[in-house]
Amino acid sequence: MKLGVVGLGYVGMVTALAFSTLGHDVVGVDIERSRVDALRAGRSPVYEPGAEEYLAKTRALFTTEYSDLKGCELVFITVGTPPLPDGSQNVEFLKSAVGSLRESGYRGAVVPRSTVLPGTTERVVAPYFEHVGYNPEFLAEGRAFRDFFRPDKVVLGYRDEGTLSLLREVYEKIDAPKLEMDVTTAELVKYANNAFLSLKVAYANEMGNISKNIGVDVYRVMEAVGLDRRIGREFLNSGIGFGGSCFPKDLSALIFFSRQSGYEPVLLKAVYEQNARQPYRLVDLLKSKYPLLKGLKVGVLGLAFKPDTDDVREAPSIKIVSALLKEGAEVHAYDPRAMGNFKKLSVEFSTLVRYHSDARECVESSDVVLLLTEWGEFRNPALYDGKPVFEGRRILGKDGVGW
Ligand code: UDX
Questions:
Q1: Is 246 part of the annotated catalytic residue set?
Q2: How many Cβ atoms from other residues are within 10 Å of residue 131's Cβ?
Q3: DSSP state at residue 376
Q4: What is the pLDDT of residue 87?
Q5: pLDDT tens digit string along 188-224?
Q6: Edge-to-edge strands of the sheet including 133-134?
Q7: Per annotation, catalytic residue among 17, 55, 246, 283
Q8: Are the C-beta atoms of residues 362 and 333 closer than 8 Å to each other?
Q9: Nearest to 324 by CA among 293, 370, 285
Q10: pLDDT value of position 46
Q11: In a mutational test of the pocket of ligand 1, which residue from 78, 141, 200 has the highest number of ligand atoms less than 8 Å from its CB?
Q12: Best residue for ligand 1 mutational test, from 113, 234, 246, 391 (most atoms within 8 Å of Cβ)
């Protein structure tokens, strides 16, 4: 099928490349010329394992022109939906994509794939197009292609039978349970899914904090708890909390939305609060051994919110490094991918933190080491050479926030 993808950020790029790999004729549109040029030259604007291999092979057309969507039967919209200060969502990019699609004369099916609050597709897209759907993505950074080709489920939200049959056709080759539902239900599925995963992490961290206080290793506890099939072991890894572009923002948006709908979401608020505090547990652990951080050389290994990505959005490292600098520590840092993005976050991070070109150099320059991201290269015990190590993510099983 000839299909379009509007918005070539992380989700859009993966979506365009994956559908093209499945044999569809894909047109990817983005208004940012530099992004389109990079994709055309085979360069991925974000770090994602496999992206450049797919880019080298793809037959997808990347363009800045909406007119190139001519002949497409279905267009996915994957533009950003950034949070607003009150926790709600900015849907201006979605509105403008819908406007540009209309102006270009496109009249086929329109299917947002960006995470949008329930009711958004009905309000923002449906008044302008006859054929409308909503198809949430469940792509985790670092494993997005695998998540696309081998998903646990595919959710097909639709308003009309025509769009539903197009959606069935584009996903024909994907072997997974396919759930068909109205667009508003499909929109809530995405939030409900992410909120539950956030809840699991916050629960594991709560148990971790209790475990630590009584000298128990929370990982032994979760190993047992996770074997209960009603619970499952995944997303019970205790640490310094969840970050990234999805969980924190989606949780805030759902809290906002819930209040607006007339329900005060006590549980979601607690998850938010638990996670907001969790990074400081590592700073507290360090201070319990080194009460005076002033002048202490602290090596921070890992800045990304998780391994295999250069993404630092809402990363626990932000709170931890800020707290260390505030206490007057001399912060040394190393991350295989995320140092560039981390420096851009603030003047303090670009001028006060000392960055190193490899992990060993960072460790050697420090009195103590904090592990913040579970990159594979940090798993080598020889790296630490007897230096005191405090773990925010369980890597070596040394002194950690919940073990
Ligand atoms: C997530 C969802 O997994 C994905 O389906 C959705 O579409 C977008 O949000 P992502 O943000 O890429 O993907 O990361 P994920 O791997 O889910 O991890 C999120 C955060 O939770 C990370 O900071 C991670 O370190 C943390 N986490 C995860 C834990 O602390 N413990 C766990 O057991 C699992």
A1: yes
A2: 21
A3: G
A4: 82
A5: 999 999 999 999 999 999 999 999 999 999 999 999 9
A6: 133-134, 154-158, 178-181
A7: 246
A8: yes
A9: 293
A10: 87
A11: 141
A12: 246
Give the chain's mean pLDDT. Answer: 97
Beta bridge partners of 75: 4, 110
pLDDT above 90 (res 86): no
- Which two three-digit tokens encode residue 327? 């206490």
**Token pair belonging to 145:** 């292609």
Q: What is the mean pLDDT of residues 346-351?
A: 97
Task: Give the residue from 171, 185, 31 showing the smallest Cα distance to 97.
Answer: 31
The reported pLDDT for the residue numbered 88 is 86
Q: Rounded distance, CA 272 to CA 241, Å? A: 10
Which of ligand 1's atoms lies nearest the C-alpha of 311? Answer: 12
Let me know: does 373 contact 354? Beta carbons within 8 Å.
Answer: no
- Give the per-residue pLDDT at 15: 98
Q: Whose CA is nearest to atom 4 of ligand 1?
A: 140
| Residue 349 beta carbon below 6 angstroms from any ligand 1 atom | no
Question: Which tokens go with 174?
Answer: 């994907």
What's the average model confidence in pLDDT over 120-143?
A: 97
237 lines ligand 1 (CB under 6 A): yes
> How is residue 103 written in tokens?
């102006």
Backbone angles phi and psi of 14, in degrees to 5: -65, -45
Say yes or no: CB of residue 201 within 6 Å of ligand 1: yes
Residue 195 Cβ < 6 Å to ligand 1: no
pTM greater than 0.85:
yes
pLDDT computed for residue 385 by the predictor? 86
Cβ(243) – ligand 1 distance below 6 Å: yes
* pLDDT of 380 above 90: yes
